[in-house]
């Protein structure tokens, strides 16, 4: 059974934020939140690196472990989804997630947060596939259409990979072997240490 | 001499709290009113206690595999190999 994974090739990411925009548009994500974000380290300095981050659909998801109403479930594709009908907006998952994936679009009275929203790997939710209710709550269900998440499909530099974990890992490995240098090359630091300029 | 309201107007007090002046029948007694209220609240709370927790229990339909290697997906993999 294929396991769905995201993989961001940091050597290719140019911080264009097209993945963020594509996700917001495709899933009609509300104002003020992003299901996907581009994180840049050493911004504006030599060695700057950007990486596109969203829910990583963990195998043993910490969000699911801390949820007091147990609203998370994992599909056969290893995509971590949740039920907005059960979510009470407590925010525990937000604190548990190491990637900051769970978001809270609504701010109510007395600190209430509304329903949690997160990346669904463009796989909808527990409602019927491709139904209007599913779209309204969770966004599009591209997996049911035989497609992959739009953030990865839109990536102009092919930095963001999505799909069957084994296939995209093989694609990334081929890239690194072809590149033959830099952070991703197997054994580079062992052979040349960190101070070798390319 | 100052008298309390209760002693000064016993008829009015009686009328308001327990009996109507015209009919002489007892109105809703304060104690029985609160007793009934408490019993109602207990009854209302009982189903909430015995109702089982509604944790998400996705069936096979919700958790089924949706991914398939369509031509669209194969094209994605192909162009990403460059």
Structure at a glance:
Chain A is of the alpha+beta class. Chain A is built from seven helices and six strands.
Features:
heterodimer; A: 198 residues; alpha+beta; Alpha-Beta Plaits; two-stranded antiparallel ribbon; two-stranded antiparallel sheet; 7 helices; globular; B: 82 residues; mainly alpha; rod-shaped
Mean pLDDT of chain B: 69
Number of helices of chain B: 5
Uncertain regions spanning at least 5 consecutive residues of chain A: none
Shape of chain B: rod-shaped
Name of the level-1 CATH class of chain A:
Alpha Beta
SS-based structural class of chain A?
A: alpha+beta
Distance between the termini of chain B: 105 Å
Helix content of chain A: 25-40%
Helix-residue proportion of chain B: 55-70%
Q: Overall 3D geometry of chain A?
A: globular
User: What profile does the largest beta sheet of chain B have?
Assistant: none
What does this structure look like?
- The complex is a heterodimer of chains A (198) and B (82).
- With 198 residues, chain A is an alpha+beta fold.
- Chain A has helices at 18-27, 62-66, 92-96, 132-138, 150-154, 165-179, 188-192; strands at 4-8, 37-41, 49-53, 72-74, 80-82, 160-164.
- Chain A has a single domain (4-192), classed as 2-Layer Sandwich (Alpha-Beta Plaits).
- In chain A, 26% of the residues lie in helices and 13% in strands.
- Chain B is mainly α.
- Chain B has a domain at 1-49.
- Chain B is rod-shaped.
- Chain B starts with a helix and ends with a helix.
- Mean pLDDT of chain B is 69; it is low at 4-8 and 12-18.
- At the A-B interface, strand 4, strand 6 and helix 6 of A face helix 5 of B.
């Amino acid at each position: 059974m294929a396991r769905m994974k995201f993989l961001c090739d940091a050597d290719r990411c140019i911080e264009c934020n097209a993945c963020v925009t594509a996700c917001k548009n495709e899933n009609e994500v509300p104002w003020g939140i992003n299901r996907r974000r581009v994180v840049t380290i050493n911004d504006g300095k030599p060695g700057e690196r950007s990486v596109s981050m969203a829910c990583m659909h963990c195998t043993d998801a910490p969000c699911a472990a801390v949820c007091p109403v147990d609203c998370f479930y994992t599909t056969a594709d290893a995509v971590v989804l949740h039920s907005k009908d059960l979510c009470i907006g407590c925010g525990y998952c937000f604190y548990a997630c190491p990637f900051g994936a769970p978001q809270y679009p609504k701010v109510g009275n007395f600190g209430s947060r509304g329903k949690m929203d997160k990346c669904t790997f463009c796989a909808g939710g527990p409602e019927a596939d491709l139904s209007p209710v599913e779209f309204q709550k969770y966004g599009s269900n591209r997996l049911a259409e035989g497609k992959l998440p739009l953030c990865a499909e839109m990536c102009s530099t092919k930095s963001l990979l999505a799909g069957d974990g084994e296939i995209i890992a093989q694609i990334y490995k081929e890239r690194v072997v072809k590149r033959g240098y830099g952070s991703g090359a197997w054994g580079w630091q062992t052979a040349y240490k960190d101070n070798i300029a390319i | 001499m100052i008298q309390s309201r209760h002693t000064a107007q016993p008829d009015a007090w009686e009328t308001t709290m327990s009996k109507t002046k015209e009919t002489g029948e007892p109105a809703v007694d304060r104690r029985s009113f609160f007793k009934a209220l408490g019993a109602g609240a207990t009854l209302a709370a009982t189903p909430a206690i015995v109702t089982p927790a509604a944790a998400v229990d996705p069936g096979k339909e919700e958790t089924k595999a949706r991914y398939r290697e369509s031509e669209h997906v194969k094209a994605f993999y192909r162009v990403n190999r460059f």
